[in-house]
Amino acid sequence: MYDIIIVGAGPAGLTAAIYARRASKKVLVLEAKNYGGQIINTLDIENYPVEAHISGFEFATKLYDQAKNLGAEIVFEKVTEIRDNAGEKEIVTPKNTYKAKALILATGSENRKLGLPKEDELIGKGISYCATCDGAFFRKKNVAVVGGGNTALEDALYLSDIAEKVYLIHRRDEFRGEDSTVNQLKAKDNIEFVYNSTVSKLISEDRLNSIEVTNTSGEKRIIELDGLFVAIGRIPENQNFAKLIKLDQAGYVISGENCMTNVEGLFVAGDNRTKEVRQLVTATADGAVAATAAVKYINNIQ
Fold this sequence. Notes:
The chain has 302 residues and is of the alpha/beta class.
């Protein structure tokens, strides 16, 4: 029996583990993949207080080490089901069933795909969802980035220093990302903006070699390239818990800034909950809030 089980070892989950251990609670963190979440793929974090520049990998590793050194147990197993059994939380993985007095879901989100034929088979053969992971493979080549948010803008900026040319494709005529990044992109001479357009077809032989782009007027254009980086958002990883907790239409856990869910003793933190701003700093803030609320909950029921 654990005091608190945390599902997810991203910034929100690891921060929650730090706060829970500092409150002397017995803590287990369950993670399906690697610690760090999506931030681990960020080359340079520039907007986190105190650290003007730090890589996502270094940031995540520091968080992981801090949680481990404080005594949090971290196990790499995928959670497939959660149960609320008379107030006691049961967390099921393919290997084990764990029990806790309180549960924090910090599962984050996964890449949203274009939904085009051949997309899955071309992953690693020209299609990528992580520019900082795979950008080096496209040095001096032509690439495209799809999306209009901060991730897409940052990907295009990063790739502009590696690739010969970068096409930035967005379905609208203006970007959702920060103006400062847009201005940096406009100053680059190897970036072409493709507004009011979507990728309508993937063209390949053994690997991706071009894409068809269709604009809002129905006009089609073929762009020859070697790599396509998709950055059109993410899908919250809450599907396995939909029977127990309330989700909104987009699949995010319904929760306010107190990180509480509709289930007593079950809390949520990070990018998988309803919120206005999804940034590193808000993820770590959620972790602190959720852990504090879980500790208070446990102390009240004892």
